[in-house]
């Protein structure tokens, strides 16, 4: 569990009435899987039921913003609207400038989607220089850092609970 | 009190009729607390009543822009609309590129929110390379710099007073 | 075929009912041709018919975003609407800052077009420091990397299939 | 007077019917004052009357974009609409990343305001590495550079004159 | 004439029915003049008549995006609407950060204007580190590079021809 930061909630939230979507990219699968698992565990610890945790995927991080909107709309159409979305991706610096342009455009598009969709969109994207940094932030390196997916799960419940009616 | 800059008002403002919201992230708690306190002290010095200073929090700085909108809307729904919002966060450079992408997207989203919400949104986010820089700007290092929260409190009263009716 | 990443689909998609547009810039023709070919091959492997793969071009990458919108609108007007667009361009760092400003504005405009056009827009732009990096990502250097056009073809079919009705 | 550049007008403009707003930040007062003075002198030289030059201020440069909109709206409400606005600020690189994020968000927000307010907004913000650079551009260093405020005054008259009716 | 790239059209375009606007900044006049001339020559070679090439100017590059919109609207109001606009500017790195912020905001605003005005806006802005780089791209250094204005003229005719009716 997080020692400081996002993981510390300002009050006890009850997630038992919330439906939370997780949408993840499929690059760097092992790290992604750990982050998704961390988010799911925290959602459950805050009372979100298994049936109310919906998980989807898209090919890469560039697809996360529009994929999140598609996801919201499909759930809406089914009569099972989401109260928050956690888009999860792992971006690692390579030799071209792909990392920089993807990180920047994805971060801003996820930020904007909060306002356009009027649903909290949590920033579950790691923007790392090395693969090891990403592994550490997914809790995969013993004794280093906690799984950031836990923070994202907590943030989703908090922000969904603060949504104006 | 600020020696130069934001802290110097162009005229005497009367905050006694204004309701000001402060919304802060919860990372780097000691620094955040000092900044919030600086803002509150300055708001009071300019006549804002205790009852009209409303304080909320969000998990991290990425949540500040949408959290500010939620905050504005909840206050509106309660019949207690805010005349300005001061989002407060402390971002410190780490080893990944998280700092850069969060700083950039948060700054732009707060800027934009001014126009979308039609309420002054003050920029209360420190974007520092070291923790010491942030402490200095929160007035926590004796004899170094003043508490920037004071400037933000003054800016909130001024910008709210300049709002077209 | 891709070993990991975008190329691995999360399920079997049937592209036989989809119409996919490819719009490419004309700079660095040999690399562009290989990328377009990779995308076409993958689209066909996923069931998209020859008649439903529509290929257009624009002068340079700056024209890709607005050119994609023109393309979508012309196809719409013909009664042959596109289910996804793959804009393809190859940008290589030169001695001025042209590369940086074009890469940044094109990436963000393509991201935004997803939301404005309500059609998946795949990011088929290489942002490379050297021409060799671009050749490798087009599958033109034996034994180095796979043709990224294949990933884009797969992403187009997947994202089009996930479009809410 | 400017030797080349903005200062050279493409034709003789008559500012006698125009009302121009200047809104300045209050940091770096000596430099700001010189720039405002340069703009005012040039406006007058182009025929703008004293009564039609309206000057306002905001605390810092972050407040310039929304402050410009407030300014436009207040003047509109008074029945004294502005034909152009010159927001003036002086930003100087410090030890944190504050400079970078403020410069970037302010520049883009002022650019956008042109389109949203449908009134020319001139870019009167200096983004300098050193204070000396800013002094030089305010005409405060004898024999170095001209006062850039003059260019901004000329640009305001020209752009206001080119406004479609 | 261009050896590769933008200069090679994908088909023969007939510009004889098109009206094209050129709007240029007035800094670095010699280079600007050469670029405007290159664009005009290419427009004529593609059949655009002298009467249908309309040339305007603005003070500096920051004014190009809004100046282009004013230009479009004035021509519209006259009953002589433009089918494409070529904004031309030359930006050269100086000692402050002015270059970076202007280049970035101008590029993105021109990109966006395509979508807002629904008319092709060609990117005719050079973003150079040295003046010599700009001269070379204006065809002013014998035996070095071709005049990029030619590419912009060709792109304007092509993009205008591809406009949906």
UniProtKB/TrEMBL annotation, chains A, B, C, D, E:
SUPFAM superfamilies: Lumazine synthase (SSF52121)
Gene Ontology molecular-function annotations: 6,7-dimethyl-8-ribityllumazine synthase activity
EC number annotated for this UniProt entry: 2.5.1.78
Any one GO BP annotation for this protein: riboflavin biosynthetic process
Catalysed reactions listed for this entry: (2S)-2-hydroxy-3-oxobutyl phosphate + 5-amino-6-(D-ribitylamino)uracil = 6,7-dimethyl-8-(1-D-ribityl)lumazine + phosphate + 2 H2O + H(+)
Record's keyword terms, sorted: Riboflavin biosynthesis, Transferase
A GO CC term attached to the entry: riboflavin synthase complex
Pathway: Cofactor biosynthesis; riboflavin biosynthesis; riboflavin from 2-hydroxy-3-oxobutyl phosphate and 5-amino-6-(D-ribitylamino)uracil: step 1/2
InterPro entries the UniProt entry points to: LS, LS/RS, LS/RS_sf
Pfam families, sorted: DMRL_synthase
Subunit structure: Homopentamer.
Function: Catalyzes the formation of 6,7-dimethyl-8-ribityllumazine by condensation of 5-amino-6-(D-ribitylamino)uracil with 3,4-dihydroxy-2-butanone 4-phosphate. This is the penultimate step in the biosynthesis of riboflavin.
Family the UniProt entry places it in: Belongs to the DMRL synthase family.
Name of this chain's protein: 6,7-dimethyl-8-ribityllumazine synthase
């Amino acid at each position: 569990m997080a020692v400081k930061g996002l993981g510390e909630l300002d009050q006890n939230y009850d997630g038992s009435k919330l439906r939370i979507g997780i949408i993840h990219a499929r690059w760097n699968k092992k790290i992604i899987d750990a982050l998704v698992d961390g988010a799911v565990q925290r959602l459950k610890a805050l009372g979100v039921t298994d049936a109310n945790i919906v998980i989807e995927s898209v090919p890469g991080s560039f697809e996360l913003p529009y994929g999140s909107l598609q996801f919201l709309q499909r759930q809406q159409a089914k009569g099972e609207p989401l109260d928050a979305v956690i888009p999860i991706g792992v971006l690692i610096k390579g030799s071209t400038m792909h990392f920089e342009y993807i990180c920047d455009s994805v971060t801003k598009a996820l930020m904007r989607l909060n306002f356009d969709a009027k649903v909290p969109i949590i920033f579950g994207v790691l923007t790392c220089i090395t693969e090891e940094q990403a592994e550490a932030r997914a809790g995969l390196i013993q004794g280093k850092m906690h799984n950031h997916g836990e923070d994202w799960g907590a943030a989703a419940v908090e922000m969904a609970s603060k949504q104006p009616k």
